[in-house]
Design a protein that fits this description.
The protein is mainly alpha-helical. Helix content is 62%, strand content 5%. α1 packs across α5, α5 (97-122) packs across α6 (129-145) and α6 (129-145) packs antiparallel against α8.
Length: 186
């Protein structure tokens, strides 16, 4: 068993490697360019919805206030007529990437901590590269990829986006496993 504090170097190094790889995947490669196509009639939609000044948050349309209302013919009519949507409203203004990138880096550090914890409990100092790679890599893959699937199952996010994100998670998991195997205490 390897204590978590002894794995600070692979945690931080894997976070840096994954952060850089994700930057390349999202900014250089065309892989995610078409993930969010334009809304048909976008200008009409903006003109209709803009004056409502909807506060930032996540919304369900239509939304029943109770189970009884959900079973009502009126609610069924709303569902059949549409639109039916999950809507995320963001604060108006230019996008600033600093906060998003900071939060992403903290997330990749947290994934590294989980990978370190699992691998550190399963393996001792001097464990061979492939064993470390397997434990840290699978843990990281699950953290990066598996959580995306419920978004498609329950909230009808596109499965193509889930598959692409899963592939990204596989890359991040492989990189994490590789860094942990390389920097594992001997």
């Amino acid at each position: 068993m390897v204590e978590l504090h002894a794995l600070w170097l692979p945690i931080v190094a894997s976070a840096v490697v994954v952060f850089l790889a994700s930057s390349l995947i999202h900014m250089v490669l065309p892989w995610h360019k078409g993930d969010y196509p334009a809304l048909p009639g976008e200008e009409k939609f903006r003109a209709a919805v803009g004056p409502l000044a909807i506060p930032p948050g996540d919304y369900l349309v239509p939304r029943a206030g109770s189970n009884a209302e959900m079973q009502s013919p009126e609610f069924a009519k709303k569902l059949n007529e549409g639109p039916v949507m999950l809507l995320t409203v963001m604060k108006p203004g230019p996008w600033t990437m600093g906060s998003n990138l900071s939060q992403w880096f903290v997330f990749v550090l947290v994934v590294g901590v989980f990978a370190a914890y699992v691998a550190g409990r399963a393996l001792g100092e001097g464990a061979n590269y492939l064993a470390v790679f397997r434990f840290a890599g699978v843990t990281a893959f699950c953290c990066y990829a598996v959580g995306v699937w419920p978004q498609s199952i329950w909230y009808k996010r596109g499965w193509l986006l889930a598959v692409k994100s899963t592939f990204d998670g596989l890359i991040y998991g492989l990189l994490t496993g590789g860094v942990f195997g390389w920097l594992w205490p001997r």
